[in-house]
Amino acid sequence: MEHHLSFSCDYMEGAHPRILQRLIETNLVQTPGYGLDSYCASAKEKIRSVCQAPDADIFFLTGGTQTNATVIDAILKSYQGVIAAETGHISVHEAGAIELGGHKVLTLPHQNGKISASQIRTLLETYENDANHDHMVMPGMVYLSHPTEYGTLYSKKELTEISSLCREYQIPLYVDGARLAYALACPQNDLTLADLAALCDVFYIGGTKCGALFGEAIVVPKPDFIPHFFTIIKQHGALFAKGRLLGIQFDTLFTDHLYETIGNSAIQAADQIRQALIQNGYQLRFGSPTNQIFCVMENAVMEQLAGQVEFGFWEAYDDFHTIIRFATSWATIPEQVEMLCRLLAAQHA
Amino acid sequence: MEHHLSFSCDYMEGAHPRILQRLIETNLVQTPGYGLDSYCASAKEKIRSVCQAPDADIFFLTGGTQTNATVIDAILKSYQGVIAAETGHISVHEAGAIELGGHKVLTLPHQNGKISASQIRTLLETYENDANHDHMVMPGMVYLSHPTEYGTLYSKKELTEISSLCREYQIPLYVDGARLAYALACPQNDLTLADLAALCDVFYIGGTKCGALFGEAIVVPKPDFIPHFFTIIKQHGALFAKGRLLGIQFDTLFTDHLYETIGNSAIQAADQIRQALIQNGYQLRFGSPTNQIFCVMENAVMEQLAGQVEFGFWEAYDDFHTIIRFATSWATIPEQVEMLCRLLAAQHA
Amino acid sequence: MEHHLSFSCDYMEGAHPRILQRLIETNLVQTPGYGLDSYCASAKEKIRSVCQAPDADIFFLTGGTQTNATVIDAILKSYQGVIAAETGHISVHEAGAIELGGHKVLTLPHQNGKISASQIRTLLETYENDANHDHMVMPGMVYLSHPTEYGTLYSKKELTEISSLCREYQIPLYVDGARLAYALACPQNDLTLADLAALCDVFYIGGTKCGALFGEAIVVPKPDFIPHFFTIIKQHGALFAKGRLLGIQFDTLFTDHLYETIGNSAIQAADQIRQALIQNGYQLRFGSPTNQIFCVMENAVMEQLAGQVEFGFWEAYDDFHTIIRFATSWATIPEQVEMLCRLLAAQHA
Amino acid sequence: MEHHLSFSCDYMEGAHPRILQRLIETNLVQTPGYGLDSYCASAKEKIRSVCQAPDADIFFLTGGTQTNATVIDAILKSYQGVIAAETGHISVHEAGAIELGGHKVLTLPHQNGKISASQIRTLLETYENDANHDHMVMPGMVYLSHPTEYGTLYSKKELTEISSLCREYQIPLYVDGARLAYALACPQNDLTLADLAALCDVFYIGGTKCGALFGEAIVVPKPDFIPHFFTIIKQHGALFAKGRLLGIQFDTLFTDHLYETIGNSAIQAADQIRQALIQNGYQLRFGSPTNQIFCVMENAVMEQLAGQVEFGFWEAYDDFHTIIRFATSWATIPEQVEMLCRLLAAQHA
Question: Quick check: C306 contacting B, CB < 8 Å?
């Protein structure tokens, strides 16, 4: 099943070596469970520091869908829904986890995976102006992903506009940072962790796709913004018994700026692949500057390529073409990139 | 926060060295996500083999509450509840995870953490005979834990009786094996993994408390007993992206009988502690033969002891005594046991 | 199926004639839907007045289980449960409606259907003192019924104690008044509607069993205690399109003290039946002073009686006796009571 | 608040006089509760007969949102969603009742309120062909309304195509007949109750908007298609204590073809209004042939008209025009229609 050359996703390997090393070193140290250990405490302090949010509540969970479902269910009132792009992970690829929690995803059309403050404003105003809105789902929060599912980035200006709007309407803003390291490593990105902490009510720093074995760090800049969140996490089956494993991983990721730099090689690799695609006449899609590369490929070419390298089939472009995705990661090595570039050139020739 | 001597629970350390070694060796191997990798496939084959259930469906999740909540919600119809001991983990210590899924826990009084076939039969008959039962929660499955929360074990005879009753009433039987390795290592235990597969509709083999870094293996002996369980797991936020980590761990646990023997030292340590308690005049409770040791302790003695060793405060016995718990694990070392035994003797003297 | 003589429950007939008359008179008047009509407005004013709660929010729903499920789900946080007697309607006879909303019913042993402030205090203190309470369901409100399922009544002193405790712990108190008219008509009752409004955070005034065709009036003395309750009601499928029907009924019930007196004849009838039972040597149970009469009956006698009059089979008393229930209502007529008394005397002879 | 001339909706009055008469006549008859009475039995037989579905299960509930939420939650597996037009009542105007039950509404673009077999087929095929569909919400049933929210009708041919597709995919088909009487009375309609029973797995016959005081009759042509539906109804707070009230109403509606003819005058009135609109130069919208009339109106005209007659504001058409709705009902009288036609002519002149 495993392919010799694969760009199918960014969670195909284990962990960054420094993380593995820390897990080995600490393996037999005894700690209390449920995140009440000193590794978690240390990781939280480091995250608070880099986020410039000294009072932030931090929680560590094991996966992205779990994190989204738990955060959203914790924030929304029972009668509220969450505003998201129609392409948002919670809209499409979480098997109804948000609805299982009783909430509607209120979708907006996307522009390369993004939604805008003005779209959200229109939705909120339309709701408010509808004479029947007491019979409708109330918009209760905004969900964004950064980078988006299409690899694109919100600018600081765009996120600030959305944040201001949310505060005007007193609606929490939540950012899914499953691939946040690849934003931070991207030259086009102008949003820091401190910016996210200043602009969002809740966001999560993705570990699973960004160098950890697994794990996501939820940041709640304003303390106690979600009362009894520990119990809510437990109730959602999302409280990890050996929380120390998450603490050790995030403590390592936030030592010596590892998290902020771990995506660098992935971005360079992605840029190299984008260059190769353009040079060989392929059409890029969605304008992603991060570690996900989308391009249009003729179906016959695609099928031949698929025999040599693993990648993602995104969606049909037309009857004869498909949009495919290559994903690089912190673990991608130059040899793999070069081999892919050669394959792309050969296909085209 | 970390204590120099601690018997407070059985998940205070990382993983068994062989597991860690496998994680290191495989760290940079690329695999697909979500458990579709060859490590998971291999682990599943080994579990099917030891369970003598060649067609069993196997699923790997990351924690016990998550596993219980997902399995129970998957098995029950919306209008059904789950029968459990009032002391069952799902009844008390899962923060309402079962109710979050919409289901009532139908509790029965326990005998040292266990419930009996005759109790369950009475509950089922009472329900059936109640003229108003269409207005009541229908009992839809039985939940047991083996070992129980009080460290006790079901005998093969007892579990067979419960299993027969469940089949008579066509009600699934589910066994929570969070600490199953400590049952398998216990001389008093006469239930093998193959017995569990033969007698249960679903059970889980606990990893988190039994030598894994984390993870539980759900065994469904009859294939497709839970249709679309993969999607149900995803919807519950319980689908682990890097499923290979779970596959690697369970593949190791089921190589060279590691899982069936990993609890041996914990049982020996527990027996040694039990002997020390008896010799020093303490009263044991609940008759646990496994890695959990319960005893009654005078409050003044307990407080003094608490300054020297970490343990669990279970429940008040009377105004002057408390029931406390010591837990050993696969990672407990002889020096720790000897130190505890010395402390117990010293307290008493 | 219909019996010629029946004391099986208190909702066997339609509506009090005055209510029917008002429905006839208003039948073709056009009103807006969803309770936004002038009948509802008038009924609400009358209820506010008799409750001495001039700012109270009032909502009309169609049935008791619906009301309980909607109110409890609206009040509780997702991680909280509701404290109730083990015999409470929500504990036993609502088919898991509370759990469907995601909440555990935290049951307490009952005394003739009642629970006490001291029991509730112990539960709250036990929860608070449990070192693991963050892993447990948090008690979030108290549910009582008045009269209880066993026909008994809370005294003003008892309810005041429970209310004080709830305020001390900042836990809402909710009273299910499905049969409230039978309390108000009972000489032993010392709780007025104004007392309920002063002591409870939410209560409901039962219509279905108390002279209405159907309907229950939820009283929330402190306005906006449940924000967006209209939408919550809609989301629970409990918003009645022709709300005017509920308004008309409750407006009639609260005109000329109908609600406060409609139970008088039922209480007199019940007292007469209780006298007949005692005189004929039957043992009364639970000490109900309201319209429900419980007694112990030898099974052979019971079976013979069941051929002549319909009543409720409550629970087995022992192998040879059963506890049965007779219920009177506003519609019970003297001839029926006399016939029942004759039957009881004849059985006994 | 009540207007002297109102066409704002079709549930502004009480009940058809024959129904009221039956409620008066039966008011003091004693019956068992919960629909186990002889009136319900009789009504069910009459509905089975007219539906030519002699074994159908029939259930009576009190309102439309309640019915939709209960039926949909009963039919779907936890991981499934319901396919509906984006304008479907369940998509927009039920305050998230479907999501409260844990299910996603999978919306399709509408054509005048309708969706087609080919749209549904595309959705099902897209789902099946998506390599990631195990991570997505599975389409589990189809929801239609007949008439639709826009007053339009499915033809027998269209519904047969959808029904065949649903059977091909083994996906239940459910039709919301809140306004079914207005379809049955409409000359353009070629779908009988027997057709609905033959083509649907579940549908409901609306009472609230069609002459009853309140109530909806769920028809399940294939018996036991929804096991334990009685308990599911109870759990959803939708089991009406005095079920006889619903039985009496539907028994009357299905006596002497009342239900099939009760909409006649409403359709004639609507046709008359449509004629007046056309004659006065207004643009009709959506092509509704039933009791709902939609037209485009200049905002200034609309505001003047709103001072004289009550109607519904549907949606903005452009910056200067609004789509408004007039609804007639069984209770609309010729004088009201004439007055409205005069107003329309006067506005225009």
Answer: no
Domain layout of chain C by residue ranges: 17-259, 264-348
Element at A157 (helix H, strand E) = helix A156-169
Q: Model confidence over A235-269: pLDDT tens digits? A: 999 999 999 999 999 999 999 999 999 999 999 99
Tokens of C153: 């009544």
| pLDDT per residue as tens digits for the range A104-120 | 999 999 999 999 999 99
- pLDDT at res. C189: 98
Rounded to an integer, the average pLDDT of C30-39 is 96
User: CB of A47 within 8 A of CB of A56?
Assistant: yes
How far is residue A110's CA from residue A87's CA, in Å, rounded to a whole number? 7
Quickly state the pLDDT bin for D348 (edges 50, 70, 90): low
Mean of pLDDT values over A276-280: 96
Within 8 A of A68 by CB-CB distance, chain B residues are 237
Confidence of residue B313 (pLDDT cuts 50, 70, 90): confident
According to CATH, what is the number of the domain B17-257?
Answer: 3.40.640.10
With a CB-CB cutoff of 8 Å, which residues 180-219 of chain C face chain D?
208-209, 213-214
| Interval B261-280 mean pLDDT | 97
Minimum-distance CB partner of D231 among B134, B228, B239:
B134
* Chain C nearest CA to B222, separation (Å): 29
State whether A231 and C138 contact (CB < 8 Å).
yes
ipTM value for the complex: 0.96
CATH top class, domain A264-348 = alpha beta
Q: In 3D, which of C177, C212, C175 has the Cα closest to residue C82?
A: C175
| Tokens 């996966």, residue located | A63
Residue of chain D nearest A129, judged by CA positions: D315
- The radius of gyration of chain B from alpha carbons, rounded to an integer in Å, stands at 21
Backbone angles phi, psi at A127, to 5 degrees: -60, -50
CB B9 within 8 Å of CB B313: no
Query: In sequence order, what DSSP letters do the residues of C20-54 get, joined into one string?
Result: HHHHHHTTT----STT-SHHHHHHHHHHHHHTT-T
- Is residue D199 within 8 A of residue D159, CB to CB? The reply is yes
Top-tier CATH class for C17-259: alpha beta
Chain D interface includes A103 (CB < 8 A)? yes
Task: Indicate if the pLDDT at residue A349 is higher than 70.
Answer: no
Report domain D17-261's class: alpha beta
Which residues in B lie closer than 8 A to residue D102 (C-beta atoms)? Answer: 102
Residue A317 touches partner C, C-beta closer than 8 Å: no
Nearest CA in chain A to B33: A12
Please say whether the beta carbons of C165 and C137 come within 8 A: no
Average pLDDT, chain D: 96
Nearest CB partner across the interface for D99, out of A95, A102, A131: A102
Angle ∠(C270,C275,C279) on CA atoms, nearest 5: 150
- Judged by CB atoms closer than 8 Å, whether chains meet at C96 and B105 is answered as no
Interatomic CA distance for residues C59 and C247, integer angstroms: 10
User: At D314, is the secondary structure helix, strand, or coil?
Assistant: strand
Q: Which residues in chain C have their CB less than 8 angstroms from residue B9's CB? A: none
> Which residues 6+ apart lie within 8 Å of D257 measured at CB?
none
Report the pLDDT averaged over residues C58-82: 98
- Looking at the partner chain, which of D31, D65, D234 has a beta carbon nearest the beta carbon of C95? D234
Residue A340 has pLDDT above 60, yes or no: yes
Which C residues in the span 242-301 are in contact with D, Cβ-Cβ below 8 Å? 242, 244-245
- Test D134 with B231 for CB contact under 8 angstroms: yes
What does the DSSP assignment read for B59-85? EEES-HHHHHHHHHHHHS-TTEEEEEE
Q: Provide the CATH number for the domain formed by A19-257 in this structure.
A: 3.40.640.10
Calpha distance C179→C144 (Å, rounded): 12
